[in-house]
From TrEMBL:
<feature type="binding site">
    <location>
        <position position="576"/>
    </location>
    <ligand>
        <name>Zn(2+)</name>
    </ligand>
</feature>
<keyword id="KW-0378">Hydrolase</keyword>
<dbReference type="GO" id="GO:0008761">
    <property type="term" value="F:UDP-N-acetylglucosamine 2-epimerase activity"/>
</dbReference>
<keyword id="KW-0547">Nucleotide-binding</keyword>
<keyword id="KW-0067">ATP-binding</keyword>
<dbReference type="GO" id="GO:0006047">
    <property type="term" value="P:UDP-N-acetylglucosamine metabolic process"/>
</dbReference>
<comment type="subunit">
    <text>Homodimer. Homotetramer. Homohexamer. The hexameric form exhibits both enzyme activities, whereas the dimeric form only catalyzes the phosphorylation of N-acyl-D-mannosamine.</text>
</comment>
<feature type="binding site">
    <location>
        <position position="484"/>
    </location>
    <ligand>
        <name>an N-acyl-D-mannosamine</name>
    </ligand>
</feature>
<comment type="similarity">
    <text>In the C-terminal section; belongs to the ROK (NagC/XylR) family.</text>
</comment>
<keyword id="KW-0479">Metal-binding</keyword>
<feature type="binding site">
    <location>
        <position position="564"/>
    </location>
    <ligand>
        <name>Zn(2+)</name>
    </ligand>
</feature>
<feature type="binding site">
    <location>
        <position position="581"/>
    </location>
    <ligand>
        <name>Zn(2+)</name>
    </ligand>
</feature>
<dbReference type="GO" id="GO:0005829">
    <property type="term" value="C:cytosol"/>
</dbReference>
<dbReference type="InterPro" id="IPR003331">
    <property type="entry name" value="UDP_GlcNAc_Epimerase_2_dom"/>
</dbReference>
<dbReference type="GO" id="GO:0046872">
    <property type="term" value="F:metal ion binding"/>
</dbReference>
<comment type="similarity">
    <text>In the N-terminal section; belongs to the UDP-N-acetylglucosamine 2-epimerase family.</text>
</comment>
<dbReference type="InterPro" id="IPR043129">
    <property type="entry name" value="ATPase_NBD"/>
</dbReference>
Length: 717
């Protein structure tokens, strides 16, 4: 049977059993004692492939059984039917032969049928070339055979590590190298010009021709056929004598053959199209070629032994280890790209690569076979890595409170809280926000570590960390792109990495306005609503937009900068550099600015009011003065509320939400003025939209927690 992905004799790896048992390539062997028994099946019986089973007989081997197991059709269904047919026929053969060890090679779909049959019939399996990575369905098949096999012979150190990672027993893995390299590394000195002339013509010189070998990619047949067509077009344009081998019998091969015939490759003077080349002759052809092109594993593995330039097309071998002789054209989507690769590679000579073998694989494999104890238990064991004891039935685990660590980075304070699934703040920690990046990041890590340790004592299971911060944030990467002026040294800051590395927990980061909207969606008045907007009225003015139940970030993470909606063309300067923004009128900073002006002019304080000398004048003093009848303070608040109201009208006309939620310390002072402005200025169709004051105490912390809790309970964020 064909145990690789090349046309039969063009498969040097299939010489494994030839080397072991002095016979020919491309069959499956069973070892009974030390007498090999040969089952010839699959494509070796095809007349299309010149009955390559005869090569086995010419090497003085008796073929015990010939099985026809390939269903013609060359599509996905035919591959499945071929596996099924093999599973039907193989049990009788294996019952008759009763082998001690079955040697299975590679990653072909028909090899999977053999391994499945042997495993279910309690026959020991030795798998050759497991642990490798290519890039197609072959990977899945190869790894499936690995799990069925009892013993493993691999070719590279990486493949050995992959097998160990797949929980295979290290004592049953042999790093031998590729058996075909035993022949390849000693083959180059043989007479080769007569072979080149026989296959390519009398006028062809060494290093002045190309070998092309391309197969369908079963996971993307349509693209692989198009890529083959582009390859042939590039080869025609390159105008060098080319030996083209027919593709293997995988799904899509029939369409590839049609492409060859449509382009007249079999009759083109520069091309020789063949279905089969004897192995020894194929070695000489690739060893002395000016270049090999295609997507065969032969190109990226065996040809490296000769230093022949190789152009590997597409993704079929994308995971293979390769030598420096291989040029990858992974996106082979244009003729020009392939043609450029031919110009770069043709005629070069690279150092010989020994990634896949040193020429001594066969003696190692024979020694390994002899060491197998046929009396040891057949049941294979897997070497799973140690795992923590399962405590899912422990009462303390059952009673744990699923929680999140929430971090709020404000202009003044840095707060960390343990927040439960129900939105309860179990414990909160507050520190002044340092002025430098170094001090700030160290304090965040320190507070989070302390909170995580305290969570264990409080029987809270922390699922992750959510961070709310001012400024523009890339939530996908967990990076603060640009901060507000209130938080210094806070631009282009990666918050996710240091916290995740320290706490070994997933970390989410977002803007404080967005977090307020998330808090309302999960815990507040936005719960269950499809569309609503949250406006934060604090030191600055921010916001968040929920549309169709999801948070809107915008193309550059700048959505919902509602504080910078312009409501006056000649208004006061804003911290963003513009003027007339809502924030320039209605934020805590704006009110503080106006309060200081009044205080400097002795127009702020009224009877029953005082400001201690060591206390800075702020927005709350302005509000207090307004409540005590200060007409100028009342006018300033009315102007601020009007600006905010106009901003809300713009939001209603733009977003048409079903609810607007005012959040923050100033919300209750603005709510009535905002509603008045809506009645006066808004279109009648949106005047019924409700505007409410948030009833959440810590929206930033709750929003930060909701990022963790929503995701870990399988809500998409």
């Amino acid at each position: 049977m064909p145990t690789g992905d090349c046309s039969v004799a063009a498969k040097p790896r299939e010489q494994l059993l030839c080397s072991l048992f002095h016979t020919t390539p491309g069959y499956t062997a069973c070892a009974l004692g030390w007498k090999p028994m040969v089952i010839c099946r699959g494509s070796h019986a095809f007349k299309d492939l010149i009955n390559t089973y005869r090569m086995i007989e010419q090497d003085d081997f008796d073929i015990n059984t010939r099985l026809h197991t390939i269903v013609r059709g060359e599509d996905e269904a035919a591959m499945v039917e071929s596996v099924g047919l093999a599973l039907v026929k193989l049990p009788d053969v294996l019952n008759r032969l009763k082998p001690d060890i079955m040697i299975v090679h590679g990653d072909r779909f028909d090899a999977l049928a053999l391994a499945t049959s042997a495993a279910l019939m309690n026959i020991r399996i030795l798998h050759i070339e497991g642990g490798e990575v290519s890039g197609t369905i072959d990977d899945s098949i190869r790894h499936a055979i690995t799990k069925l096999a009892h013993y493993h012979v691999c070719c590279t150190r990486s493949a050995e590590q992959h097998l160990i990672s797949m929980c295979e027993d290290h004592d049953r893995i042999l790093l031998a190298g590729c058996p075909s390299y035993d022949k390849l590394l000693s083959a180059k000195n043989k007479d080769y010009m007569s072979i080149i002339r026989m296959w390519l013509g009398d006028d062809v010189k060494s290093k002045d021709y190309i070998v092309a070998l391309q197969h369908p990619v079963t996971t993307d047949i349509k693209h692989s056929i198009k890529m083959f067509e582009l390859t042939l077009d590039a080869l025609i344009s390159f105008n060098k004598r080319t030996l083209v081998l027919f593709p293997n019998i995988d799904a899509g091969s029939k369409e590839m053959v049609r492409v060859m015939r449509k382009k007249g490759i079999e009759h083109h003077p520069n091309f020789r199209a063949v279905k089969h080349v004897p192995f020894d002759q194929f070695i000489q052809l690739v060893a002395h070629a000016g270049c090999m092109i295609g997507n065969s594993s032969c190109g990226v593995r065996e040809v490296g032994a000769f230093g022949t330039p190789v152009i590997n097309l597409g993704t079929r071998q994308i995971g293979r280890e390769t030598g420096e002789n291989v040029l990858h054209v992974r996106d082979a989507d244009t003729q020009d790209k392939i043609l450029q690769a031919l110009h770069l590679q043709f005629g070069k000579q690279y150092p010989c690569s020994k990634i896949y073998g040193d020429g001594n694989a066969v003696p190692r494999i024979l020694k390994f076979l002899k060491s197998i104890d046929l009396q040891e238990p057949l049941q294979k064991k897997f070497c799973f890595p140690p795992v923590k004891e399962n405590i899912s039935q422990d009462i303390d685990h059952i009673l744990e409170t699923l929680s999140a660590l929430a971090v709020d980075l404000g202009g003044t304070n840095l707060r960390v809280a343990i927040v439960s699934m129900k939105g309860e703040i179990v414990k909160k920690y507050t520190q002044f926000n340092p002025k430098t990046y170094e001090e700030r990041i160290n304090l965040i890590l320190q507070m989070c570590v302390e909170a995580a340790a305290e969570a264990v004592k409080l029987n809270c299971r922390i699922l992750g960390v959510g961070i709310s911060t001012g400024g523009r944030v890339n939530p996908r990467e967990g990076i603060v792109l640009h901060s507000t002026k209130l938080i210094q040294e806070w631009n282009s800051v990666d918050l996710r990495t240091p916290l995740s590395d320290t706490l070994h927990l997933p970390v989410w980061v977002d803007n404080d306005g967005n977090c307020a909207a998330l808090a309302e969606r999960k815990f507040g008045q936005g719960k269950g609503l499809e569309n609503f907007v949250t406006l934060i009225t604090g030191t600055g003015i921010g916001g968040g937009i929920i549309h169709q139940h999801e948070l809107i970030h915008g193309s550059s993470f700048c959505a919902a900068e509602l504080g910078h909606l312009v409501v006056s063309l000649d208004g006061p300067d804003c911290s963003c550099g513009s003027h007339g923004c809502i924030e320039a009128y209605a934020s805590g900073m704006a009110l503080q600015r106006e309060a200081k002006k009044l205080h400097d002019e002795d127009l702020l304080l009224v009877e029953g009011m005082s400001v201690p000398k060591d206390e800075a004048v702020g927005a709350l003093h302005l509000i207090q003065a307004a409540k005590l009848g200060n007409a100028k303070a009342q006018s300033i608040l009315r102007t601020a509320g009007t600006a905010l109201g106009l901003g809300v009208v713009n939001i209603l006309h733009t977003m048409n939400p079903s609810l607007v939620i005012l959040s923050g310390v100033l919300a209750s002072h603005y709510i009535h003025i905002v509603k008045d402005i809506i009645r006066q200025q808004a279109l009648s169709s949106v005047q019924d939209v409700d505007v409410v004051v948030s009833d959440l105490v810590d929206p930033a912390l709750l929003g930060a927690a909701s990022m963790v809790l929503d995701y870990t309970t399988r809500r998409i964020y």
